């Protein structure tokens, strides 16, 4: 299957993408991963991206599209892939349509993870990260440390990243609504979108997502 995963920051896209890709035996292709891979390998696209990033500028769509196109052409993506973080706007969605058309391929489904805005703010703004080891993550409400401000694992100081502050989260959500959310209507016109609730336990969301994808696969095969 060829799938695009869409949802606001804090919807759990990365977590769900990993589970879904494993269940479906297709690669999980995230924008962050392809950026890091191209930069670490010193590819021409990676060098271009790094120049923009060092200057504090957004990486142009054509560079992001080029990286995604190269990644989708790799052998492990021949029978399908799950895109996470791409396309991020209408221009990228239209470019993806063109790439797939050139290859006589098409998307099978666009999975829209729906989360109320206040829940997104609560999820992200409540995160607390250990300064000693950033893999130690807590949440002020959902998984609080035994002692306020202290990591249960190593005793390091817990802090709130600037990106996780409420005002920053609300700005990120505004960008999502203005730039990324319109691709949902783009794909609705192609009858590809299934919206599922991303509330509840991770396993419950995964089950909903798998059921939605099974339904999408059945409709394609009919």
TrEMBL record:
Protein's recorded name: Adenylate kinase
Originating gene: adk
Q: Which organism is it from?
A: Streptomyces abyssalis
Highest taxon in the source lineage: Bacteria
Q: Which lineage ranks, top first, belong to the organism behind this chain?
A: Bacteria, Bacillati, Actinomycetota, Actinomycetes, Kitasatosporales
Give the CC-aspect GO terms. cytoplasm
Checking Gene3D superfamilies in the record gives:
P-loop containing nucleotide triphosphate hydrolases (3.40.50.300)
Where along the sequence do coiled-coil regions lie? none
Residues that hold ATP according to the record: 10-15, 127, 137-138, 200
Q: What is its EC number?
A: 2.7.4.3
């Amino acid at each position: 299957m060829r799938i695009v995963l869409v949802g606001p920051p804090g919807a759990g896209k990365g977590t769900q993408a990993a589970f879904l890709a494993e269940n479906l035996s297709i690669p999980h292709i995230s924008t962050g991963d392809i950026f890091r891979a191209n930069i670490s390998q010193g590819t021409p696209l990676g060098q271009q991206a790094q120049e923009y990033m060092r200057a504090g500028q957004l990486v142009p769509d054509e560079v992001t599209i080029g990286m995604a196109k190269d990644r989708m052409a790799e052998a492990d993506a021949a029978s399908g892939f799950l895109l996470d973080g791409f396309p991020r706007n209408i221009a990228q969605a239209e470019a993806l349509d063109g790439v797939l058309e050139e290859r006589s391929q098409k998307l099978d489904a666009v999975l829209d993870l729906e989360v109320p805005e206040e829940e997104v703010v609560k999820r992200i703004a409540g995160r607390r990260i250990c300064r000693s080891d950033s893999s130690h993550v807590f949440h002020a409400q959902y998984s609080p440390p035994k002692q306020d401000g202290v990591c249960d694992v190593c005793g390091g100081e817990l802090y709130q990243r600037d990106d996780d502050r409420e005002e920053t989260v609300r700005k990120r959500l505004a960008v999502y609504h203005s730039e990324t959310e319109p691709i949902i209507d783009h794909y609705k016109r192609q009858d590809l979108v299934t919206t599922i609730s991303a509330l509840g336990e991770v396993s419950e969301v995964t089950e909903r997502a798998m059921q939605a994808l099974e339904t999408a696969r059945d409709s394609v095969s009919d």
